[in-house]
Design a protein that fits this description.
The structure holds 2 protein chains of 2 kinds. Chain A has helices spanning about 5-15, 15-35, 40-65. By secondary structure, chain A is mainly alpha-helical. In chain A, helix 1 (about 5-15) packs antiparallel against helix 3 (about 40-65) and helix 2 packs antiparallel against helix 3. In chain B, a hairpin with a 6-residue loop joins strand 1 (about 25) and strand 2 (about 30-35). Chain B has one domain (about 5-260). Classes of the chains: A mainly alpha, B mainly alpha. The interface between A and B is medium-sized, with 14 and 19 residues.
């Protein structure tokens, strides 16, 4: 079996951020469902949280290529 | 051009980190690469666009002025005023607008036909933009509070006695190491990964179509190209988001440095 151990590492590293992004947007949907007027106020916070969590998954991908 | 297109009958060569090194003039340390050209072109384009928008401004805007006002209003209202407050946002608005338009246009170069190379997938450019943010948010804090006051202000209030040194050490590490690293890496990694993804689908589809050994493989290359198309649209969104998040975080760090409490 051939392949690269890096990619297994990336696969394991992507579990955490995937759950995190799901939780962030679950909170955003919940907040909008409880009070639809707050959609515009919650959106920047949701986008910011998404980018912060996604950054870690992308570090894993880049390091899988480079190392 | 690309080594992938020329290697026929040697098996598929997957895209790698070397695909991002594209020297156009010369080679080695003093080469002029494609990304250097792209960033210069982007600066000229942004300046031209903004100069054209502000040339004959009228109270009832035409289409070009409307577009320009849209970009400016977005950065001013959604980012600068929301984060920095109405009283303190004005000195920082040129920085935020410059960073936003520069990162946005250079990111979108990754999907514009005939260009198709996001400048920030080369880490040097991400380092440069992050350095500016880094220097600004420290300098602003030190100018407002003095050097001693700035370092004293890094301590969050209400921490019980024995754990305070560790919290302070963590805060120091966050301010000086983690923040610039993650800010630059986020932009670079998003652009690198996006470009790599597009390369895999499109080069793979091209290999399957032209060098596939039987008709089934050649027919399945449609799937690869379709995924390439879907990923292109996804990349447009991601590139806009990354520019937005970078400028939002810059504004947040500056606001944190200016804050009186904490």
């Amino acid at each position: 079996m051939e392949g690269n151990l890096n990619v297994i590492g990336y696969g394991l590293a992507a579990i955490g951020p995937a759950i995190a992004v799901g939780l962030i947007f679950a909170a955003y949907i919940n907040g909008t469902a409880r009070q639809p007027e707050s959609r515009g106020m919650l959106q920047p916070i949701a986008i910011l949280g998404f980018a912060l969590a996604e950054a870690l998954a992308l570090f894993g991908l880049v390091l899988a290529f480079i190392l | 051009m690309s080594p992938h297109v020329l290697a026929a009958g040697e098996g598929f060569v997957p895209p790698s980190v070397g695909d991002f090194w594209q020297p156009l003039i010369g080679d080695g340390a003093l080469a002029v690469t494609r990304s250097m050209f792209l960033i210069v072109i982007s600066v000229v384009l942004i300046y031209g666009f903004l100069a054209l928008v502000t040339k004959n401004m009228s109270v009832v805007p035409g289409k070009l002025q409307y577009a320009g006002e849209g970009v400016y209003g977005f950065v001013r209202n959604s980012i600068a005023i929301d984060v920095l407050g109405k009283k303190e946002f004005l000195p920082f608005l040129p920085l935020l607008l410059t960073q936003f338009t520069l990162i946005l246009l250079n990111n979108w170069f990754g999907v514009i036909p005939f260009i198709q190379f996001p400048t920030f997938s080369r880490i040097g450019f991400a380092i440069a933009v992050t350095l500016i943010t880094y220097v600004v948010y420290h300098a602003v804090g030190i100018r407002r509070k003095g050097v001693a006051g700035y370092f004293k202000g890094l301590m969050p209030p209400g921490i019980p006695g024995w754990i305070a040194p560790f919290v302070y050490l963590l805060e120091l590490m966050t301010f000086f190491i983690t923040r610039p690293l993650t800010l630059g890496m986020r932009l670079f990694a998003n652009m690198f990964a996006g470009h790599m993804l597009l390369l895999v689908f499109i080069l793979g589809g091209e290999y399957m179509l032209l060098h596939g050994s039987n008709l089934f493989i050649q027919a399945s290359s449609v799937g690869a190209f379709a995924m390439g198309l879907v990923m292109t649209f996804f990349e447009i969104l991601v590139q806009f988001l990354q520019a937005y998040v970078f400028v939002l975080l810059t504004a947040l760090y500056i606001a944190g440095s200016l804050a009186d409490e904490h």
